Hints:
Elements: E1 3-5, H1 43-51, H2 71-81, H3 101-109, H4 129-140, H5 162-170, H6 190-202, E2 210-213, E3 217-219, E4 226-228, E5 232-234, E6 239-246, E7 250-252, E8 261-268, E9 272-274, E10 282-285, E11 288-289, E12 291-294, E13 301-307, E14 313-316, E15 324-336, E16 341-345, E17 349-356, E18 363-366, E19 371-378, E20 382-385, E21 394-395, E22 403-404, E23 429-437, E24 442-445, E25 448-451, E26 455-462, E27 466-473, E28 476-479, E29 483-487, E30 493-501, E31 513-515, E32 518-519, E33 524-530, E34 536-542, E35 548-555, E36 561-567, E37 576-582, E38 585-593
Parallel strand pairs: 2-5, 3-6, 4-6, 5-7, 6-8, 7-9, 8-10, 8-11, 9-12, 10-13, 12-14, 13-15, 14-15, 15-16, 15-17, 16-18, 17-19, 18-20, 19-21, 20-22, 23-30, 32-38
Antiparallel strand pairs: 1-2, 23-25, 24-26, 26-29, 27-28, 27-30, 31-33, 33-36, 34-35, 34-37, 37-38
Helix pairs in contact: 2-3, 2-4, 4-5
Amino acid sequence: MIKKKQVFNVFITAVIIFTMIFSSISAVVADNLLSDIKGHWAQDTIEDLVNRRIIEGYPDGTFRPNNNITRAEFTSLLVRAFDLKSGLGKVFSDTADHWARDYIKTANYHGLVNGYSDTLFGPDDPVTREQIAAMVVNATKAGSVNESETFTDSAQISAWAKEPVAKAAAAGLITGYPDGSFKPKANATRAEAAVILDRSMKITIDEKTITTFDIAGTYGPEDGIQTIKTDVIINADGVILQNTVIKGNLIISEKVGDGDVTLNNVTVEGTTSIYGGGKDSIHINGGQYNNIIIEGTPGGNVRIVAVDTKGIKIIVSEKAAGEEIILEGTFESVEIKSDDIVLSTQGKTDINKIKVDKNLSDIKLNVDKGTTINELTLDSAAEVKNAEDTIKKIGGDKVSDSGIGNPPKEEREPSSGGGGYTPPVEPDTYTLTLKASPIKGGTVTGSGKYKKGAKIPVTATAAEGYKFINWTTGEEEVSTEAAFTYTMPAEAVTLIANFGEVVVEPGTPVTLEINPMKAKIGDEIALNGNTGPNRLISIKVVDSKGKIVYFDGVKSSGDGKYNTTFKVPDGGDGDLTIVAGYGENVATKVLKIKK
Length: 595
């Protein structure tokens, strides 16, 4: 039986703990009225969330609804709200030692957030309204756009944010102001963050319902056809959906992990988006589909097997960097829009067109000999393996810059993308192919066709969590330098950049002393201890029921010493447990509370 839910609670798997880190925030008793929200436009929402113990205020009984919220703080709320599992996301130069490092890394891995650049995230910058719009759209996967809804200051919305703002507005996640403006660059407040999170918890698709499949099993009739008028989300490994027409979109979520999903005689009138699956993952038997968008999967690889289908169009999105995509069956087209993609084929596979978009790098096509590709357009340089007898026509702007192994024996006609296939290589020109091992370990540059004796700069760049080891060809070590100049011999060569995982040593242990050991409400408690130098230490105070009543941070000195104070708050229950540390390096003490 199809399971329907009246709210979009597929995403709400954890209670949001709205504790604003490093702002000396502690909890107020949920039943107490916050003194500064009476008459505020968000009063009802804030009170409701406080009463449900989803958000908390400051120890003085205020909520400070008009205070700004930072990019790191809002990111951490989203990660906890959607119970996102950690993964190999990006660690920016300004988040490496930040308290929210793991939250930001996890959110980046799941595609919720990006940095200002490849190195900067700006964790302590106030988050803007257009940034929040992008974050919540990425988190909730809201997909509708109301073309008729515009804002008076639409021209001020950043180009990258126009689509997310439109989707967030259409879904009712974030709205404009009474004067018709959106104020995209304005800093979001704590009240706005509370309301947006509340809406994210209640968002509905197609006005009332969304259809989800959360448990492995077979769904849909054995005979005849069922129609689902809503969007559909598959959240579990082992789901088989059959004889179904989906009027909305189909999402195969990251919760599928490295598992399998089978679609038997399914028609999707909207878009199919793939966030989960592995090397044996998506099986399509019959049916009809529009675009199938590969967004990136937790394991970094996905296999799509399409049997008895026509017209399937695969789009590899910008979010799929690092993905290996394996195709088997019949496909109308494949468009690659992301860097660092490996596209492989298996078995008997027929693809009408493959296009590699402009300005991409590290694209590899491993074409199985049982494959037929009618047309390949290379508008970015790529490494192509086994083109002979598999690819009928090769064109594009960057054919001459590409490394084409076993090229077709005859010259091919140019494609509409410009440029034509380069005739067979002259006898004194040879192919240099660069590979990374493992593929996830890093990226390499320098592949191409070169004459004997050419001096070629080659570079290996390690990915997050990996380090460069050496260059090898066969069993011979060529260089231990990540960037070096290679001299081309009179033969084709494959150079392999070898990477190894970085083993993170455990951090310095943390000690904790408190004074006094017994206290009453309002007393000031001194905390001090030792750890590594210049280390950011979090201080958390928890009552006997596990409720956090105080949360702050302190940085150790150059010799590893730290100290701070806090006042015993009112509203705690029983003795208090004080926890100081970072990561898994923590120390605890119990503070006895006098009656």
